[in-house]
Structure formats: structure tokens, C-alpha cells
Design brief:
Helices cover 75% and strands 0% of the residues. By secondary structure, it is an all-alpha fold. Helix 5 packs antiparallel against helix 7 and helix 7 packs across helix 8. The chain is elongated, with a radius of gyration of 21 Å. The chain has eleven helices and no strands. The chain has two domains: 62 residues, Tetracycline Repressor, domain 2 (Orthogonal Bundle); 152 residues, Tetracycline Repressor, domain 2 (Orthogonal Bundle).
């Protein structure tokens, strides 16, 4: 395949990612994507086979581009801070239709078969489990998480902050719900007294950072 054709097909995927964020699968036109990507519809069908296959590739590409939060650890950040930060990012990400690209593509833009959804859920479960297991173990050793089985902690964290239906459901049921509330609800039964202090310190620090950022933006605009 020539470099020109490769670039053209990459534009098709890029355009599909953007298109499927705002349109239902059945309403989306391959002709529109072809025009935006400067590629023929015949080539799109030849390479991707169908609109559904293009949809699946676009959804996968959106997720793999890192639109969903990744866990980051540094020497300056303790294990529990790493865990809180990751879960905060997951909650904010899943509660936002604009930011939750891959998840919302798969969850709300088309009829997903049972097999497709199982594959997607398994990928997400594996990713989140691998991301939080290390910080959970260290937080238990540091006396910040209760000495439960690591798998029990991981399951509780996934249940509270891992998937869109749980997070968006909380937001829909409670208009005052926010990431702080969801984070507290998730970790309340898991933390030791020291861990609770660490959680409140984390929430206070992140709130102060948000206020400072808002003030800086206001000053910049004026």
C-alpha cells in the first residue's frame, strides 16, 4: 500500500472517530466521511468492509489514543495519591460525554452485540485491574487501606469508578453529585483512619488547584 493511500485511510479513521462521537451509527454517512477524508467510498468499503467495521476500528482507535485516563506514578507521589488521582480522572472522564470518547462510542452510539460488549468490558477490566493493583498493595502495606484481600479492593474500586453506567448513574440520580462525592463513596469502606485523612487532604488540594486554575483563567480573559 502506498504512503499516500495509508495517509488517506488514516484520515478516514480520524474522521470516523469524530463523526461517531456525535452521530448514531445508523445515521452516519460513509459519503460524508469519504468527503472529509478525501477518499473514495469504494476504497473505504474495500478496506473496511462495512460501516460497522469502520465504527469498531474508530472506537478502538479512540480508546488506544489515550483519551481515557492512564495511571501515573512519580517519586513525589505516594501510592494512595496515585490511586486517588487515577480514580478522580476516571470519574471525571466517564461523567463527561465529550471526554469519554471510546466508552461512549461503544456504550451509546450503536447496538452492540453481547460478544462485542464482553470483549470491550474484559479489556477495560484488565486495564483497570493492572493499573490499580500495584498502588493498592503498597497502600495496604503503608496502613492506608484496610488489610483486605487485594482483589476485594480492586473490585470495589472498579465498581465505584471503573465504568460509565455506574458513574453516570450517580450523576443522573443526584444533581449535586461530583467527583469528590463519588471518590468518597468508593473509598469510604476501604480506608483506614490514616487513609481517610489522606483522602480529605487530596480532595482539599485538588479543590484548591481547581480554584487557582479558575482564577488564573479569569485573570487571563480580563
Amino acid at each position: 500500500m502506498s504512503d499516500k493511500k495509508t495517509r488517506s485511510l488514516q484520515r478516514v479513521v480520524d474522521m470516523a472517530v469524530e463523526a461517531f462521537r456525535s452521530d448514531r451509527l445508523r445515521d452516519m454517512s460513509i459519503n460524508v466521511i469519504a468527503k472529509e477524508a478525501r477518499c473514495s467510498t469504494a476504497t473505504i468499503y474495500e478496506v473496511f468492509g462495512s460501516k460497522w467495521q469502520l465504527y469498531r476500528i474508530a472506537a478502538k482507535a479512540s480508546i488506544e489514543r489515550g483519551d481515557h485516563p492512564r495511571i501515573e506514578e512519580s517519586n513525589q507521589q505516594g501510592s494512595i495519591e496515585t490511586l486517588f488521582g487515577f480514580c478522580e480522572a476516571r470519574i471525571v472522564h466517564l461523567a463527561s460525554h465529550e471526554r469519554g470518547r471510546g466508552e461512549h462510542l461503544l456504550n451509546s452510539r450503536a447496538d452492540i452485540s453481547g460478544g462485542d460488549m464482553r470483549d470491550y468490558v474484559q479489556r477495560q477490566l484488565s486495564y483497570i485491574r493492572e493499573a490499580v493493583e500495584g498502588p493498592v498493595r503498597r497502600a495496604i502495606d503503608e496502613g492506608l487501606l484496610l488489610p483486605f484481600d487485594v482483589a476485594a479492593h480492586v473490585h470495589a474500586i472498579i465498581s465505584g469508578t471503573g465504568f460509565g453506567p455506574m458513574v453516570t448513574g450517580n450523576y443522573q440520580l443526584d444533581p449535586d453529585c461530583n467527583w469528590q462525592t463519588t471518590l468518597r463513596l468508593t473509598f469510604a469502606p476501604l480506608l483506614t483512619a490514616e487513609g481517610q485523612v489522606a483522602l480529605e487532604a487530596f480532595v482539599a488540594r485538588r479543590w484548591a488547584e481547581a480554584v487557582d486554575a479558575a482564577d488564573e483563567e479569569k485573570a487571563r480573559l480580563h
